[in-house]
Amino acid sequence: MKVAVLDIKGKETGREVELSDAVFAIEPNNHAVYLDVKQYLAHQRQGTHKSKERAEIAGSTRKIKKQKGTGTARAGSIKSPVFRGGGRIFGPRPKDYKQKLNKNLKRLARKSAFSIKAKDSAIVVVEDFNFEAPKTKEFVNVLKSLGLEGKKSLIVLGDRNNNVYLSSRNLKGSEVITSSELSTYKILNAGSVVLLEGALEGIETNLTNK
């Protein structure tokens, strides 16, 4: 599929690029997308949750009242979960939430995500650009020109560019990443995906090579 290349002012440059059908025009595999997004979200969890159980509470272990004759239930240590300040029954413990997926499935998921965006006409190709210094105002002007101001957008660079990255860091709805940092979740979470020309070769190479 052919897509017109825009400049940072949102105007057509008169050039077109050919997007690989093997990446941007496949039949989306929804289950692969589901598994990859599920893995991404699971990996965002730290798994450091912890509460103290009965054996970990600091307190006396003496029997707090006699076994019989009180008219109430039997009670042993004050650290019992039935008392205020006692341990928690089956409380959360540290856990590793990482999940494993094979590379081919992850590639299929990302190609499916790109194909979904391409079908919705939510992929924009822009010629490579740079700023002389980090300036949020300049980055906002680029978003305005592309009609993306105030919208969720994902800008994909070919290589790390600190000036562009730092210019976007204060903007809540826009994210700048390199082609090697792409994930299915980030592609689908963005309203529009802006691909710089320099990123296209890396994307197609990473997603088609086995």
From TrEMBL:
Give the UniProt entry's GO cellular component terms.
Answer: ribonucleoprotein complex; ribosome
- For whether the record's keyword set contains Cytoplasm, the answer is no
Q: Kindly list any coiled-coil regions of this protein.
A: none
Q: Does the keyword NADP apply?
A: no
Q: InterPro entries from the entry?
A: Ribosomal_uL4, Ribosomal_uL4-like, Ribosomal_uL4_dom_sf
Keywords, alphabetical: Ribonucleoprotein, Ribosomal protein, RNA-binding, rRNA-binding
Query: GO annotations under biological process?
Result: translation
Q: Supply one GO molecular-function term.
A: rRNA binding
Using the UniProt annotation, give all residue ranges assigned to the region (Disordered): 45-77
State what this protein does.
One of the primary rRNA binding proteins, this protein initially binds near the 5'-end of the 23S rRNA. It is important during the early stages of 50S assembly. It makes multiple contacts with different domains of the 23S rRNA in the assembled 50S subunit and ribosome. Forms part of the polypeptide exit tunnel.
Q: Which family does it belong to?
A: Belongs to the universal ribosomal protein uL4 family.
HAMAP family membership:
Ribosomal_uL4_B (MF_01328_B)
Description of how the protein assembles with itself and partners: Part of the 50S ribosomal subunit.
User: What name does UniProt use for this protein?
Assistant: Large ribosomal subunit protein uL4
| Species in which this protein is naturally found | Arenibacter certesii
